[in-house]
Amino acid sequence: MAQTGDDDQNQASEEEWLGIDSACKMLGVDQSTLRRWSDSGRVPVFRTPGGHRRYRKSDLQAILRGATPSRPSSRKSLTRMSISAYEPDYLRLARQRSWYRAYSDEQLHELRVLGRRLIDFAVRSIGEPGADDLQEIYDEGRRIGRRYGSISADAGLSATDAVEAFLFFRYPVFQSVTQFVEEEQMPARRAIKAFTDISRFMDEVLVATMSAHSDAMSNGI
Fold this sequence. Notes:
Layout: H1 6-9, E1 17-18, H2 20-27, H3 31-40, E2 46-47, E3 53-56, H4 57-64, H5 74-84, H6 88-95, H7 98-102, H8 105-124, H9 131-154, H10 159-183, H11 188-218
Antiparallel strand pairs: 1-3, 2-3
């Protein structure tokens, strides 16, 4: 349920992501050239769950200056890839679902804020965080999950719909991890561990979501 919303997609910032048409105009090249540069690794590119290419504006600005695009840390890179995956096309699919329409505008706004926090903690769960840090990450994930569950119950969603909503918005995060593993050419053992770590974290969040949903429904909310 880590949605970001169209308003977040359209915010101009140093991490603004551009479609291939806008990127071509910025660089002054045609699409076939940019695709070739992307495939060769000359221009960093991110592919959304829908298969669309997205380019960081700051990377393109670096290329125009004749510089090599800066490489963000692995954690920051994966976080940005995950957030950017919630493209308008993907969100339009969500709006076709009855459970999405059950949420109020206020609830959707809170879910967007929680979603961005969830992505950050999900990415932090990957790797070798210390025991205290890992406990904090999981505790925060469960808190977010409980809030998800309460909001879904308040919106009148059934348990099935609440699970479907969670899985729908979890999908792009896993897609981003897949692409990240491929781009980093991560060894198989590390790749498996990355998927295991983030899956375990997301499972904990889902359990907390359903526990809170059940409690809320039992209390007649």
